[in-house]
Specification:
With 101 residues, the protein is of the alpha+beta class. It is built from five helices and four strands. It is globular, with a radius of gyration of 12 Å. It starts with a helix and ends with a helix.
């Protein structure tokens, strides 16, 4: 895999600092664990709406990445379109990587 962003997300997952899925991401935000929400460019807007509302209500940044659900799912080994990052260091690095992408 030569995609630095997807590789870094894999590292976050191995470090157990990544929550995968819409409902788990909402729970992560509401439990004040989430530092960043990331979602795929082709993720369903209807499924995304409650995640974004929860993130906005709790002051958590939500960013779209220019990757599809299939690309995310393949790199993380699990079907996914929304992720919650639960580590500030990882979240800060991902924000920079996404902005430069």
């Amino acid at each position: 895999m030569d995609d630095r962003l997807l590789s870094f997300l894999g590292l976050c997952r191995r470090a157990r600092k990544l929550v995968i899925g819409a409902q788990p991401a909402i729970e992560s935000v509401e439990n004040k664990k989430s530092q960043l929400i990331i979602y795929a460019s082709d993720f369903s807007r209807n499924s995304l709406k409650p995640v974004l509302e929860s993130a906005e209500k709790n002051g958590v940044t939500a960013l779209m990445i220019n990757r599809s659900k299939d690309e995310l799912s393949f790199s993380l080994g699990k079907l996914c379109g929304v992720l919650s990052v639960e580590d500030k260091g990882f979240a800060d690095k991902l924000k920079i990587m996404i902005e430069c992408d």
